[in-house]
Specification:
This protein is 60% helix and 8% strand. It is an alpha/beta fold and 296 residues long. The chain has a four-stranded mixed sheet, with helices on both faces.
Length: 296
């Protein structure tokens, strides 16, 4: 497993896990199998020409978009099962956590990673149990013919989602406590965050050329060599007094995806960017209204 620490703004950072052990990926447990089955079923519903399923998937996708990006990131981290814990302790293999040192100061990286791992544990535990408690109350909806029991499926999904995020955060905390995480400055991520904007054609050409190389290391090297950098602004992610500033550009997610061969990560960065951007706009709007009231 390899971790990515990806700054979204000066006060928000996305964590994402890449599984490197192909044997563990192939040997999926029941939660992963159920998730894959549900994903396939959802895709089939989205492609259905029946109005009912179209409305259901539209409602569901809107609900998914409101789930915090932090939860999606923690869910990418595999749960710490007894077998995995035993293997990690036996092998004492360190997990790399890579980050752009041009934005995250090396001295701040350990504290940032621990904060990401622990700050939402109480929230996920609380809402996981509330979702489970609410499940029996959705039973009467199942008596309605034709209409699926959407409240039950939603609460079941939210209970699983909170459990997955909680398990991922505890896994990271366990690795930190046992000093099995190695924080690594990534020159490639630094170049991506300082890169200029690309045209869609340039991105497509970059992706095609990256797909032709044989090894991940060659892919990463080829992509970063073609990036033209702009000097990034130094931002102290630890500062709470400074205003929140969006760091990612419109191409950041796609470039990270192409460079490291991770298709899913582009969507996660885009989701986080959208949510954080709305939050920044809301804060700025509230600040403007407050200043206007004070003047009166």
């Amino acid at each position: 497993m390899r971790l990515f620490l990806l700054p979204i703004s000066s006060k928000h950072t996305l964590i994402y896990a890449q599984r490197l052990n192909r044997q563990l990926i192939a040997k999926q447990g029941y939660p992963e199998r159920i998730t894959a089955w549900a994903s396939t079923k959802w895709t089939q519903w989205e492609a259905s020409d029946k109005p009912l399923w179209q409305k259901i998937t539209t409602w569901g996708n809107n609900a998914f978009a409101r789930i915090p990006y932090q939860e999606w990131g923690l869910k990418s981290i595999p749960p710490l099962s007894a077998r995995r814990k035993k293997e990690e302790l036996r092998g004492k293999e360190e997990v790399d956590a890579i980050y752009p040192s041009s934005i995250i100061k090396p001295a701040n990286a350990p504290g940032l990673l621990r904060r990401i791992a622990t700050e939402r544990q109480a929230l996920h535990k609380k809402w996981m149990w509330w979702s489970i408690i609410g499940l029996p109350f959705t039973a009467p909806v199942a008596l309605i013919p034709i209409i699926p029991n959407l409240p039950f499926f939603y609460l079941a999904f939210r209970a699983w989602s909170h459990w997955k995020a909680l398990s991922g955060s505890r896994h990271i905390e366990s690795l930190l406590d046992k000093q099995l995480i190695r924080l690594v400055e990534s020159p490639s991520l630094a170049k991506i965050y300082s890169a200029r904007n690309f045209s869609p054609k340039e991105l497509d050409d970059l992706q095609k050329s990256a797909q032709q190389v044989e090894t991940p290391k060659e892919r990463e090297q080829q992509v970063t060599e073609r990036l033209k950098s702009e000097q990034p602004n130094a931002i102290d992610l630890k500062s709470d007094s400074s205003p929140d500033l969006l760091i990612v550009k419109k191409d950041t997610g796609r470039l990270v995806s192409i460079c490291f061969g991770l298709p899913q990560i582009s969507m996660e960065i885009e989701r986080a960017s959208t949510q954080v951007s709305k939050e920044i706009d809301k804060v700025n709007e509230d600040r403007t209204q407050k200043a206007s009231v004070e003047k009166q």
